[in-house]
Amino acid sequence: MNKDKTVYDGFLTVQEKDFRMRILLPPDRQLKRAKLHCSWKLKHLLHGYEHIVKQRLQQSPDLVSFILELKTVLEVGLKSRPECSSISPPHYYSQLISEIETLGWDKLLFIDTEFRTLRLKAEDSSRRQHILTIKFQSKHPAEAPECLADLPVPLAMTWTPQSNLQQLHNHFLLVLESLTEFWDVLDEIDSWTWILEPEKPSRADTMRRIAIENNVSIKVEVDPRHPKMLPECFLLGAEHVVTPLRNKLNANIHSWNPNSSVLHNLRDVLEITFPSPATHEKSNFSTECGICYSYRLEAAIPDQVCNDPRCGQPFHQACLYEWLRTLPSSRQSFNIVFGECPYCSKPITVKMSAQKR
C-alpha cells in the first residue's frame, strides 16, 4: 500500500471465505514487531488463537510464510466455528450501492455494516409512512431475499437473479395501494372511537375492540381485501345489555351499505352513537378487574362481566377462571366453568382459555 512496503491490505481467502486484514510493519520491516488489524469476523475466528498468531509473527522468516501459517490457523478456526460467514466479493457492494443510488438515498432508512439488511421507507397515497425490511441471503442474488413489512397480508415478492431494489420497492408500493382503503377504514375507527384492544394497533392488525359504554364493547375483524364489507362482529358485556344490541345487529344487517364507511354502518345497524375522544374520557371504559384490581393483565383486559344488572363487575378471563376453579361449589362442563360471582354471588360462567385446555 506504500513505497516503503510497510503497509499491506487485502483479503485472505480460506475455504472460499474472504477475510479482510491489514498488516503494518515497522520502518525496519521486522515481522516480529508487526501489527495485525482485521475485521471483527476475523477477530472472532482467531479468538483463542491469539498466542499462536503472536508466536508465528515472532518466528516466521518472512511475510509470505506468516500468511501461509495464518491460513492454517484459520482453517482450524473455520472447522470449529462453521457459523462464520464469508465476506461478499467487491462487486456485491458496488452493485448494491448502485441500486441504492438508482432508488434514491432518501428512501434508505438503515443499512447494516455487512450490507445484508436494509430498511426502505415508502409512502401510500394517503401519506402514511411504511417500512420495508430486506435481508439478503448468503447466495444473493441467486437466492431470494427475505422481505418483511407491517402488513395484514403476506408480503409475496417476485424475485429473479436479475431483480433489484427498485423493483422490490415498486412492488411494495403496489401492495400498499391495494391496502389503502383497509387502512382508511381503520384510521377512521381509531380517530372517532375509543379503542380498547389492541392497545397500540399496528398496520398489520385487522381487529379493533370498540367501546360502546362502560363494560360493553364490540370486537370487529375487518377483511383487508374487502374492508367495507360487513366485518365479523362479536359483542362483549353483560347479557342484559348485549342482547338488545345483538338483536338490532341481526335485524338491521340487511341494510349494510358497502359504499359507506364501516363506522357509519356500525352506527346504523346498532342504532347507537359510539363514545369518542371528543365526548368521553377513555378512563370511563377502563374498569379494573374485580379480582386482580388491574386493567391490563399482560395483553388482556377485563372482558368477563357479571350478568346481574345490579352488579356488572368485569373480570379478566384468566382471573375469573382461577377464582372459580378453587371454589368447591363450582362445576365444569366441557370447557365452561360454572360458579358464583365473587361480588354478588349470582351465577357466572367462564370459558377455559386455549392455554388451559
Automatic annotation (TrEMBL):
GO terms for biological process: interstrand cross-link repair; protein monoubiquitination. Pathway: Protein modification; protein ubiquitination. SMART domains: FANCL_C. Residues 289-345 form the RING-type domain. Pfam families: FANCL_C (PF11793), FANCL_d1 (PF09765), FANCL_d2 (PF18890), FANCL_d3 (PF18891). Keywords: Cytoplasm, DNA damage, DNA repair, Metal-binding, Nucleus, Transferase, Ubl conjugation, Ubl conjugation pathway, Zinc, Zinc-finger. Transmembrane segments: none annotated. It is found in: Cytoplasm; Nucleus. It catalyses: S-ubiquitinyl-[E2 ubiquitin-conjugating enzyme]-L-cysteine + [acceptor protein]-L-lysine = [E2 ubiquitin-conjugating enzyme]-L-cysteine + N(6)-ubiquitinyl-[acceptor protein]-L-lysine. One of its GO terms (molecular function) is ubiquitin protein ligase activity. Its EC number is 2.3.2.27. PROSITE patterns: ZF_RING_2. GO terms for cellular component: cytoplasm; Fanconi anaemia nuclear complex. This is E3 ubiquitin-protein ligase FANCL. It comes from Channa striata (Snakehead murrel).
